[in-house]
Amino acid sequence: MAIFRNGNGLAWARRRALVWALLALVLCAAMNIYHYSLQGARGLYLWDKTWLFRILILMGLLPLGLLALSLPLEKFKARIPSKLLRGFSLVASFLVGLTSIGILAFLIATPRIGTLRAPNLQLIDPSKGFMVTQDTEGLLLRLSVSSDPHWGAEKTDSNARTNILASVAEQRPDAFFILGDIVETGSSVSQWNTAIADFETIVPNIPLRLLMGNHDALFGGQLLYKKAFFPEEFSSDSGSPYYYSIETQGATLVVLNLPWGTENFDRKQRTWLEEVLRTADPLKPIIAFSHSFFYASGYDDPDLDKPWYDHYQNIPALTPLFERYGVDLVVSGHNHYMESLESNGVRYAVIGAMGGKSDPVPAYISPASKWMAVATFGHLNIDITQTDIVMEFKDQLGKTLREERFRYAPSLESGSDGSSPQA
To answer: Is 119 within a domain?
Structure first.
């Protein structure tokens, strides 16, 4: 009878440990599935503290592993080692389950805590475009572009950010594009509210289109981004709030969803992009916008152990499409510099200079680089004429730092790109 009771007791102990281990695994899986369903999460895994995210994925296997190790030890007369491992398995199940529930609750609840300010702004609905108001002779379209203001970051330059907004407001472009990293932490309602308040104060009447950067997407920030800048009544040709094209009388504008790299560049986005580029009006220039860069100078990030220059994902995945379909200009942020580059007939501009902490002096200069400004805040004006694109890099007070003019019209003679850079 004692042997029978001991056998039943052992079987019950195993079942109890197994049930708790499986519950912990399910909770861990649910947390990770939800996390990686969010915008930017896969890029966060690949680019920032990968070791931590691997632990969060694999920790659900720990209770089962401890339980499996306890089974061979049951054959020995001394049962204490097997009991200890089962006990450790139960403790691990509790900790893994609690951690998974906590992270899941954080991801779901944080962006929903607080009241997001309803923007009173001239937001651009991609499906409707925007009114072109330029009346200068020969000028078809003027765009202003900047990126990476990082509202809420400790080391951001708020004065530079304010000056840039004021400079754009004074120049009154047809549209102002901010290419992401609007805030430091996307799940923070207060940071979005501060950004919205500044937009309403300084650029309330400038047509505005904001892209979602990797910081904007953090911890469920996509919910607040869409609520503020892509409300339910907006739509796009792609069906996505994160990538779309905007047709204007002066250019075809293409917005890409690349918060870190190509993690979000799936088959659906690629198919859409190829169709947009293939069917674009050949008489108008094509200008693409993205948060993460393509060709760029930079440095090896010691914290992330990643190259922060010529993007090893974006370049092979997208630049062949730009070259094949005749994209004229690609503008991005992510790197906190201003830079002009050219590769295989496509111009690139990096404009991550809207007040976020300046990146260090580049240790690597891209072979495609034509000019760059380090530790300088500002924005880029893009003027479209009947034949040319004029890029004008401006500092935070509106002073011109660099001007480049290049031809896009297919009717012009080949053999000269018409560049006339002025330092």
So the answer is: no
Helix, strand, coil shares of the chain as percentages rounded to 5? Answer: 40, 20, 40
φ, ψ at 143 (rounded to 5°): -120, 145
How many domains does the chain contain in total?
Answer: 2
Separation CA 344–CA 346 (nearest Å): 6
pLDDT surpassing 80 at residue 75: no
Do 8 and 98 sit in the same domain of this protein? yes
Q: Is residue 184 part of a domain?
A: yes
Question: Which of 191, 141, 100, 182 shows the shortest CA–CA distance to 383?
Answer: 141
DSSP 182: -
Give, as one character, the DSSP assignment of residue 129. B
> Distance between terminal CA atoms of the chain?
95
Whether the per-residue pLDDT at 305 is higher than 80: the answer is no
Residue 355 · residue 183 · CB < 8 Å = no
Burial 53-74 (b: 16+ CB within 10 A, else e): beebbebbbbbbebbeebeebe
State residue 4's pLDDT score.
38
Residue 322 contacts residue 288 (beta carbons within 8 Å): yes
Average pLDDT value for the chain: 92
Residue 131 in any domain: the answer is no
Q: Return the CATH number at 211.
A: 3.60.21.10
The answer to whether 92 and 63 are in contact (CB under 8 A) is yes
Task: Give the model confidence (pLDDT) of 123-133 as tens digits.
Answer: 999 999 998 87
**pLDDT for res 413:** 40
Whether residue 367 sits in one domain with residue 296: yes
Q: What are phi and psi of 210, to 5 degrees?
A: -115, 135
Q: Where are the alpha helices (DSSP H) in 203-232?
A: 222-229
Same domain, 82 and 165: no
Q: Which range marks the domain in which residue 23 is found?
A: 2-112
Instruction: Examine the domain organization and report whether 106 and 149 are in the same domain.
Output: no
Cβ–Cβ < 8 Å for 332, 293: yes
Range 38-45 average pLDDT = 94
